[in-house]
Amino acid sequence: MRSALLDIARLTPNPVALADWGIAAFWTNRPRETVDIYRKSLQWWEVVVNPSAPGGSMLVMVFTGALHVLSEHEKELKEARRGRDTYPHLLNLYAYEARALVALGRIDEMEKLIEEMLTMPSGQSAYPAGIILPKGTPGYVMLAAAEELRTHGHREASLKMAGRAVDWYRSRSGEEARQEDIRSGLGDALYQTERWEEAKAVFAALAAEYPRNIFYKGSLVSLAARRGDRAEAMRIAEELRPMETPFPNGSNTYLSARILSLLGEREDAFTLLREAVAQGFVGTSVDLDGYGFIYRHSMDLEPLRGYPPFEELIKPKG
Fold first, then answer.
1. How far apart are CA 31 and CA 311, in angstroms?
2. What structural domains and CATH numbers belong to the chain?
3. Phi-psi label, residue 204: left if phi above 0, alpha if psi -120 to 50, beta otherwise
4. pLDDT tens digits, one per residue of 15-48
5. Model's pTM, two decimal places?
């Protein structure tokens, strides 16, 4: 995919081709290439990242994500804020800024950002149709902050932030509370707060209602593993393996790797993670940040941190 997009961009260096080239580089763990593409092409940046082009919000995600993986967090913060100024009505941009602030250790500023977001009118979270991004909500932003806190060793603060997300999701009512993304967000929030039984109830209901969604089934496997129920984890894992989606792109393999990681089978988990990359894994139903970003942030892959082959796999390739 990356080589094809690179050839297209060289032959037709227009904004769309260059944007796709940068995305492909990020998704294949070449964040430096992404940054170089976007920095050298500033003459077209404002063509695709402006208030009248909501699709540009995805490029902000990619640009800040690439800077994040490169640990260039001051620059990441600058670009996240520039993006938020461009799209003040999209809450996704608050998540990118919160992530940068946590990485910089500016936790108080992150907390203030969350409070500011919570004062926004509900209509401010409007989501542009057709944009391949998670739906921006206060819950989504708080979960992004919680994930980043945990990644940087602030476990207690992470649990507290995820708990705030649980409260937000549970405060939804009526039709909003019945929406799939709200229910799955609640499940993710409960998972991040380590409330395994409550998370199981949410994901079991979702898996029954949406039997083709491999991520709900995968969450149930992870929960079984975390509760120490190896037999249940392996039983559901067997159900997961033959599941197919129109474009699986290694998702099944990635979910299986998470299970093996939690079960302490480090070498086999790593082998599957590498296979998922070869199969084209670039994201989940919530994350579209590419394997280099997702692997280093997944709480289910924490047992692999410090394992040399895993650290080499997630190291930026270019």
1. 16
2. 49-194 (1.25.40.10), 200-318 (no CATH)
3. alpha
4. 666 777 788 889 889 999 999 888 876 566 677 7
5. 0.88
